[in-house]
Amino acid sequence: MVKMAKKVARDIKIVNIVVSTSLEHDIPLEKMAATLSNTEYNPEQFPGLVIRIKDPKTSALIFSSGKVVCTGARTIEKVQESIKKIIKSLLKIGIKIKIKPEIKIQNIVASGSVKMDLNLNELATQLQNVEYEPEQFPGLVYKLDKTKTNPKATFLLFSNGKIVCTGTKSEEEVHSALDKLIENLKKAKGAKEKTKT
Q1: Global pTM?
Q2: 56, 140 contact by CB (below 8 A)
Q3: What does 4-16 look like in DSSP terms, one character per residue?
């Protein structure tokens, strides 16, 4: 029961899921670009074609090998919807995808708040694996190393308590990384209060 309450109290939302998949079919990108209006293809600059999907609002990079990288979805259901729409678009140019593509999460970006003000100057000296250059950027970059209990994650911390988490591969990882971050912030705060006394 206590565990549930803890989850409700957190303030973090997934804002972007980056996935990759393979349609296991060669894709004629020129034909796709010529037929579909929601595409951009400039092979001199980049080998992939960009397709923009209105609903759910996502973008995907499609390569001639059939590899796809989709970004912008906030849930895995929306990712699946986007991939289905891409497959439907391919039917318009006579390409029938016979497989159900296997979706692999590459990165999840989440943002929220730790609900406390943060002294970034102090955290920069108390936490390990940090980058903080306030003249260049107002946020502190804090990297969590992967351990048996922690996922690998990178946090952007701001003095008002706002955070951005990136580098995780599942919603569970987002939450356990956030737990570890809060634990480390409390430890840092505790260590500072000990030096005061």
Answers
A1: 0.86
A2: no
A3: HHHHHH-EEEEEE
Segment 65-118, tens digit of pLDDT: 999 999 999 999 999 999 999 999 999 999 999 999 999 999 999 999 998 899
Residues 167 and 169: their CA atoms lie apart, in Å, by 7
Domains and CATH numbers, the chain: 19-105 (3.30.310.10), 114-196 (3.30.310.10)
Kindly write down the DSSP assignment for every residue of 111-127, as one continuous string. Answer: EEE-SS---HHHHHHHS
* 35 vs 10: CA distance, rounded Å: 46
The percent of residues above 90 in pLDDT, for the chain, comes to 84
Q: How far apart are the first and last CA of the chain?
A: 37
Half-sphere exposure of 114 (CA within 13 A, CB side): 24
| Pair type for strands 130-131 and 49-53 | unpaired
Whole-angstrom distance, CA of residue 195 vs CA of residue 85: 58
Cα–Cα distances in Å, from 162 out to 12, 13, 20, 126?
10, 12, 29, 19
